[in-house]
Amino acid sequence: MRRRSVALVTAAVLGATLAGCSEQPAAPAGRPAPDTAPTSVTPTPRVPAGKAPTESFAVGVRQVKLNRDGNRPLPVTIWYPAAGAAGGAVERSAPAADGRFPVVLFSHGLTARPEDYQVLLTRWAAAGFVVAAPRFPHTSRGTDGNALDVLNQPADVSYVLTRVLALGEKAGDPLRGRLDPERVAATGHSAGGVTTIGLFTAAGRDARLDAGIVFAGTALGVGTAFAGTVAPQLFVHGEADELVSYAAGKAVFDAVPWPKAMLSLPKGDHGRALLGDGKALGVVADTTIEFLRWTLYGDPAAKERLPAAGARGGVATLDDRL
């Protein structure tokens, strides 16, 4: 409870500090040039049509130490489909399962760590996705808590994506041949949601991204000038969010020009559903997995299952504009 209270207070600081930022700030040094190609809305993702795995995988985990520009340490936790029987405990450095898997980047919230979200992220890995989650140098637990550094995090994520994808080509690496660089999504919670939005706007568009998921996010500091090729977006937001108002998240959702959906939790707060293993987490996990199956595997059956996943248990509603 104490750690959560600290997280809530720090997240409130994010809102206060970013509120004064312009909608279109100058990109921090080192940020990749935005993709400003014209956007043409289409009803389907740009990945080729395919079929997502139907089986559940065992899950392995490993850590990779990265550092952008020599002064931004970015240790990355990677959860991935592993060989062996599904349903057991996550195994450190387990052999990877056979196949080529889409890559999902996840950005944590203020004063949080990637492992805080492991219940959700391991479910993604068990469904057939490689999940890479960096620990940011100024906004993770135990750092100086500089909320404005969130504006540098889209570039951090792009750097991490480059380095993680390189593992799939590196001789001798356990993930060699297991990563699909043409099927990539960015996701994030709270400050990580701001980071994720920034990866799809003119402030820091990464053209490699095919889709995004924003949990309790806001556009403060990164704006809503969505740019580049079509990238479907899923927003997940509690209507009782005490830190980032539901209206703020809905405003970003409304600005997205691409196929999109919003999973709303009428009794949901700022993120408890992402951290526990309750009924709401089950609905969030099932809905996000079906979204990722559709956008990254190109599986049309997953898109058809999305409304049912979002309505299961009566804890959420889905505004489906996909």
Characterize the structure shown.
The termini are far apart. The chain is α/β, with parallel strands linked by helices and 322 residues long. The protein contains eight helices and ten strands. Helix content is 29%, strand content 21%. It is globular, with a radius of gyration of 18 Å. A ten-stranded mixed beta sheet has the order 3-1-2-5-4-6-7-8-9-10, sandwiched between helices. Helix 4 links the parallel strand 6 (179-189) and strand 7 (211-215). It has a single domain, classed as Alpha/Beta hydrolase fold, catalytic domain (Rossmann fold).
The CATH top-level class label? Alpha Beta
- Percent strand equals 15-25%
Helix content: 25-40%
Tell me the series of helices and strands, N- to C-terminal.
HEEEEHEHEHEEHEHHHE
> Using DSSP, what is the number of strands?
10
Give the averaged pLDDT, no decimals. 88
Number of helices, counting only DSSP H or I runs of 4 residues or more: 8
Q: C-alpha Rg, in Å?
A: 18 Å
Structural class per helix/strand content?
alpha/beta
Shape designation: globular
- CATH topology category name: Rossmann fold
Q: CATH superfamily name?
A: Alpha/Beta hydrolase fold, catalytic domain
Domain module count: 1
CATH architecture: 3-Layer(aba) Sandwich
Q: Cα distance, first to last residue?
A: 38 Å
Low-pLDDT ranges: 1-13, 15-44
The description of the largest β-sheet is: 10 strands, mixed
